[in-house]
Design goal:
By secondary structure, the protein is α+β, with helices and mostly antiparallel strands. Among the domains are: about 110 residues, no CATH class; about 80 residues, no CATH class; about 90 residues, no CATH class. The chain has 11 helices and 23 strands.
C-alpha cells in the first residue's frame, strides 16, 4: 500500500529538509485528528492538545508567519485544493473545517516566500523543471525552464552558489524549492514538498527560452549559463542582477580587459548598452531602465583577444550561416560593417562549436569570438531562422519599404513600430544575416530582404 503524503513527509524529514508542518486525517463527524508534525523547538511528532494549538505553534515558528493548507485523497497521487499564505489562526481553522467536510487529508505547512529570488519545481527521472515566484505547481503552467537534470543542476549551482539537495531515485517524482536564505525544519536551502515513488523515469526535456527563469536572470545570462554548463568556452562573467546575489561563471581568457553588457528580460538586439570597459552597473541600470521593467542584470565579461568575431545561425533546411570579420565584432553586429571572408579554420572551428550546441539543444544561433585557437561563445539563443542568401525573413508583401542601413538600429526599430500589415522591408546596404539588424527584423516577423545600394557611377 502506498504511503500517505504526510507519512512521506515524516519519513523524508529524517534526512531531507521539509517545511515545518502539522498534518491531520479525517475523524468522526467531519472532525480531524493530528497525525504527524515537524515544528522547530518541539519534539519530533509532538502531540498538540488540539488543532488550534497546533496551528498557533506552526504560525509562531514560521519564518514568514504564514502557512499553507494542502488537501489530498490517500488513493490519489496528486493534491486537491491548495490554499497559500494564510496569516491568522482563524483563517487556517476555517479552511481546515471547510476541507474536512469532504473527508480530505490535510497538511498545514509554513509558507516559504516564493518571491525571494529562488525557484520551485519538480524533478522526475532525468528531467528538472522550475520557475521563480511560484510553488512547485508552476510545472502545470506555461513558461517553466525544462532541462536535463544534470544541466539544470549545474545552472542552479552557478546562480545560487550551492548544489540543490535533490539526490533521489531515478523513478521518483520530487517537488522542491530552493532559496537564497536557509529555511525549513532543518534550516537548509533546499526544501522538499512532496515525494512520489515509482513514476515513469524517462521524460524528454525540451530546452527552450525565453522562459520564466531566463526572464528572471536576463536572456543573455541564461544563454551563457547554458553554454557554460555544456562545457563550452564562455569568457569569465560576473553577473550583477536585480533578483539574485552577484555570481560568476566561465573561464579566464588571458585578457585583463572587460566588456560591460546589459541583459534584458528578453533579447532586444542592439537596444541596450554593450561597451568595452567597465561602467558602474547601478548607474547603467538607473539610466537605461529606471523603472526596473526591462533590464534584469549587468554583466562584466572578460574580453577575448579577438582575431575574428561574428555569429552563426541555423538557417532553413538544416543549413548553417556563419559570418564575421577580423578583429572585434561589435560594429559588424550593429550592421555598421559587412561580413568578410573568414579563414577555413575559423569556419571549421565555429561549425564544431555549433555541432556541440545543436546536438544538445537543437537549432541555435550564437555570437562568437575566435582568439586564434579557441572559439568563445559570447551570446547564445535557441531556435532556427528562415534567413538565407538575400532573404532575411521569408514572406511576400504587397508593398516594400526601403531602409538604408546607414540610419542605424534605432531608426529601424522606429520604422518597424509604424509599418503596416502586408508591408515588407528592403534593407539597402551590406549587412550580415547574423547581425543585430537581421535579428531585429526576424523578431518583428515581417518579410525582409537585402538589396544593394544603387551604383551612382
Amino acid at each position: 500500500m502506498a504511503m500517505h503524503k504526510d507519512e512521506v513527509l515524516n519519513s523524508l524529514a529524517a534526512t531531507a529538509n521539509v517545511a515545518q508542518f502539522v498534518s491531520f486525517r479525517p475523524a468522526m463527524n467531519s472532525s480531524i485528528v493530528q497525525s504527524y508534525c515537524r515544528v522547530a523547538e518541539y519534539p519530533e511528532n509532538h502531540r498538540f492538545a488540539d488543532t488550534q494549538s497546533a496551528v498557533e505553534a506552526l504560525l509562531a515558528a514560521s519564518s514568514d508567519r504564514m502557512v499553507n493548507v494542502r488537501s489530498y485523497e490517500p488513493n490519489s497521487p496528486r493534491s486537491r485544493e491548495f490554499v497559500y499564505g494564510l496569516k491568522s489562526v482563524d483563517e487556517v481553522l476555517n479552511v481546515l473545517a471547510r476541507l474536512s467536510e469532504d473527508r480530505l487529508h490535510l497538511i498545514v505547512n509554513e509558507t516559504i516566500d516564493i518571491n525571494d529570488g529562488g525557484v520551485s519545481g519538480v524533478v522526475q527521472g532525468q528531467l528538472i523543471e522550475f520557475a521563480p515566484d511560484d510553488t512547485p505547481r508552476c510545472v502545470e503552467k506555461a513558461g517553466v525552464a525544462s532541462l536535463p537534470f544534470h544541466l539544470g543542476e549545474r545552472i542552479l549551482h552557478t546562480v545560487y552558489g550551492f548544489t540543490p539537495e535533490l539526490n533521489f531515485p531515478a523513478n521518483a517524482r520530487v517537488e522542491f524549492s530552493i532559496h537564497p536564505k536557509a529555511r525549513g525544519y532543518h534550516g537548509r536551502h533546499t526544501i522538499i514538498w512532496e515525494f512520489e515513488p515509482d513514476v515513469p523515469e524517462f521524460l524528454p526535456a525540451v530546452v527552450h527560452w525565453p522562459n520564466r527563469f531566463s526572464r528572471h536572470l536576463g536572456d543573455k545570462v541564461y544563454g551563457l549559463l547554458v553554454a557554460d554548463s555544456l562545457g563550452l568556452p564562455v569568457p569569465r562573467t560576473t553577473v550583477v542582477a536585480r533578483r539574485t546575489a552577484p555570481f560568476t561563471f566561465g573561464r579566464e581568457t588571458g585578457s585583463f580587459e572587460v566588456w560591460t553588457r546589459t541583459a534584458p528580460r528578453e533579447a532586444q538586439p542592439g537596444l541596450y548598452t554593450t561597451v568595452k570597459g567597465w561602467l558602474d552597473p547601478f548607474a547603467l541600470l538607473s539610466k537605461e531602465d529606471p523603472e526596473g521593467k526591462h533590464l534584469q542584470a549587468v554583466l562584466s565579461q572578460a574580453a577575448v583577444r579577438a582575431k575574428f568575431s561574428g555569429a552563426a545561425v541555423a538557417g532553413p533546411k538544416g543549413s548553417l550561416i556563419i559570418e564575421g570579420r577580423r578583429g572585434e565584432g561589435d560594429l559588424f553586429m550593429l550592421g555598421h560593417q559587412p561580413p568578410e571572408n573568414l579563414p577555413s579554420f575559423v569556419v571549421e572551428n565555429v561549425q564544431a562549436t555549433y555541432k556541440v550546441l545543436a546536438n544538445r539543444l537543437g537549432p541555435v544561433r550564437f555570437e562568437w569570438v575566435h582568439d586564434g585557437d579557441v572559439v568563445w561563445v559570447v551570446q547564445l539563443h535557441c531556435g532556427a531562422t528562415g534567413s538565407e542568401a538575400d532573404v532575411i525573413v521569408p514572406g511576400e508583401a504587397t508593398s516594400w519599404i526601403e531602409f538604408d542601413i546607414v540610419a542605424g538600429l534605432d531608426a529601424l526599430r522606429q520604422l518597424l513600430s509604424t509599418i503596416e500589415v502586408n508591408q515588407g522591408v528592403l534593407i539597402v546596404g551590406e549587412v550580415g544575416l547574423t547581425s543585430h539588424v537581421a535579428d531585429l527584423l526576424r523578431k518583428a516577423k515581417l518579410p525582409a530582404r537585402l538589396t544593394s545600394k544603387p551604383d551612382n557611377h
